[in-house]
Amino acid sequence: MRKVAFFLLILFFLTNNYATDVTLKRVMVDGKPAYMLYVGAFPHENNALQLKFKLSSSIKQPITIDHPANQDNYFVSIGPMDNYKTAIDLQKKLALEAQNTATSPKSMPKNETSASIQAKSPVQPETQKAEVKETVLKEKPQDKEKKLWNLKGADIRAVIGEVSRITGKNFVIDPRVQGKISITSSTPMSDKELYQVFLSMLQVSGYAAVPSGDVIKIVPNIDAKTISPVPLQMGSPPQGDEMMVAVVPVHYVPSEQLVPVLRPLMPQWSSVSAYGPSNMLILSGRASNIKQLVRIIKQVDTPSVNGIDMVHLKHALAMDVANTLKDLMKAQPGVGASHVQTMIAVDDRSNAIILSGSRTERLKLRLLINRLDRENLHGYDSNTQVVYLNYLRAEDLVPILAGIAQANFSGNVGTTIGTITRPELDSTNPASSLVSSGSGGNYNNVSPTGSSQTSPPSANASAAAPNTSGANTQNEGSTKPTVQIIAEPNTNSIIINAPASLIRILRSVINQLDIRPAQLLIEALVAEVNETDVKSLGIEWGSNQQTGKASDFRPGFAIINGKTTIDDFQAEIFALAQQHKANILSTPSVVVLDNRQAKILIGKQVSVASTTYPNNAGGTTTASPYVTFDRVNVALHLYVRPQITRGRGIQLQIDQGNDTIDPASTPNSTNPTFDISSIVTSVHIESGDIVVLGGLIQNSLGNDNNKIPILGDIPGMGRVFQHNINNHEKRVLMVFIRPIILRSERDAIEITNGKYNDIRQYELKWLREQPYNSENKDMILPPLSQAKLPKPFSRHVIKRHVIKQKPSISMTK
Predict the structure, then answer these.
(1) How far is Cα 296 from Cα 302, in angstroms, rounded to an integer?
(2) pLDDT band (50, 70, 90) for residue 144
(3) Backbone dihedral angles phi then psi of residue 691, each to the nearest 5 degrees
(4) What is the CATH number of domain 306-372?
(5) Please, are residues 328 and 344 in contact by the beta-carbon 8 Å criterion?
(6) Which of 37, 150, 506, 543 is least surrounded by CB atoms within 10 angstroms?
(7) Whole-model pTM?
(8) Domain made up of 384-422+466-513: CATH architecture
(9) What proportion of the chain, given as a percentage, has pLDDT over 90?
């Protein structure tokens, strides 16, 4: 009770002795907003100090004395206070108590105005007399009584002036504020009610009252939002049609989504904007409209709007479905801003999709996911599939599939090759090992002497051994792989253990890669031709740089178009061979797959001493050491690796050479000298064109001694009857290569028919040259029809072997 009585005494002191103004102002302290209360307007500092002393006993806020430089009065300042509600409550309490005390009958006579109050001096206890000093202070007008307001066609500026006189507010009027107004009231209004009606009148007329410090600006609505009134917290907003700016935090809904929703609910001149980093809305307009918008925001901004759902898939791969949904959302930009905040995530381990967004969007996505997660019509829903290959090797395809699986699956991918042991071929014949070692190899495996460098048996055995450990892509210690790709060599199949959608991707890749490979027929003719005859051939066939000179057929290679057939070359070369001007070494032909190596090797193996060890038999060293020998190929070799390019183009990697033993070497020597001739090149030609390789020249020296018998042997005089001729001959090794693309079975059949008919025509020609014999007719090959060859081991085939002097011609199989 003592505190209440003391507080009332302070209010009575404020009301009866000093000005009763209690002003609230917003200030910035250390970059943060704060609030200050300014009490009274004292002409003397002592009066302000007395009030400060009395207030300090009941108010815990800091209290100071302010004396602005541009004013003569002193003010008691309370604050700063961080909480606006605390400051406004204290202001209302001080102002209300001061107003009630000032207007009560005990404190003010009925006929006395509130503009005159007395300031009493302290009472002297000795004399019990008081010296009264009367001071007239300017005070804000107080409401006397309610009045009726009825105006018709009144000038708006005159009305603003009257409201300023009654309410005590200071107005700054924009020059554009003009016009007449009308106000009709049926009940009396107080000064506060009058001010709210005044604000509504401004709104109807297209104007707004914008507070700015100690004044209020009257401006058109279009400029009201640019003046930016002081932001106020929504705890105690202004009333009625007062202008204000509100900062409204949004908790559950993105603020950008609310802007297009609130915009139609606001006047044209008002503004609403979103601040994304802190998810806030900034509203500028009249207090009544702002309060309505705040209520709408609270109803919309509820926790039930956003949520998280997890959808587990049974058949489809979560990553595939998620990508489909994201593409669908990108393809619908006009659906609205709600799609922007809809998030889709994938959990590979559980094969589930995580959805985050509004309830409506989540429901739409769940329905779409259920439609996409259906059983496949092709039976690919099983997590384990066995794929049989037709053309590719399973061991070669597994690493490719593992890379594709790793790119489409975020989990671990494991591979295993050779789970079932496959026995190796036993190549005990050295000659067969020569052929098998080069199949599928590269040119780096060819030694300068023409021999093939094969890997040791132990290396081959280890390479063919089953890889049961697996080539897993995950690191050691990681979890078990969720995708496994296994190659089974015996059945040439691939076993895939993965989600159904990933199996579909891998099967699609397999179907595109496991196709019938193109083949090439490579025809070759290898011959040694005299240099003079080579020049004549250059004139007849032409070369890349033909100018009419025989020497223009340059060493190296030339490409002749497909109009010239290999038969024309064979005819010319065979004609030279009959004249002993050419030596046909080989006419091979071979069919090879695209991008695989074709190897032709014709020759023999020669033993060459490699290492000598001392003979320590019996504890003594003898003069006959042990010698180890290596087998070296001395042969004519031709290695070709074709690669089919766009259209009918072919790239050929060619390694051709002819290795011989130097005739000057001792025949029984363990270390003979080898003559090496080799051409390694790459060319690009069209199918059916001919590549001519030349330039491998051998010099041969000869001496012919012609003499008359008996007379030429006479010592001394015999030279008269002798004629010595020294021959110097250069022979060029030439190789003619023509590749032909066999893309289909029909192409292979046509080539086979052609080769078969060539042999049959040769037999018919031979038959015509022989005396008539009825048995000879049975030796002729029958006409080839429907791509069927004669039955093996028939009498026709057996009798053909008795024909002599027939060339060896290869057929395409």
Answers:
(1) 11
(2) low
(3) -100, 130
(4) 3.30.1370.120
(5) no
(6) 150
(7) 0.43
(8) 2-Layer Sandwich (3.30)
(9) 6
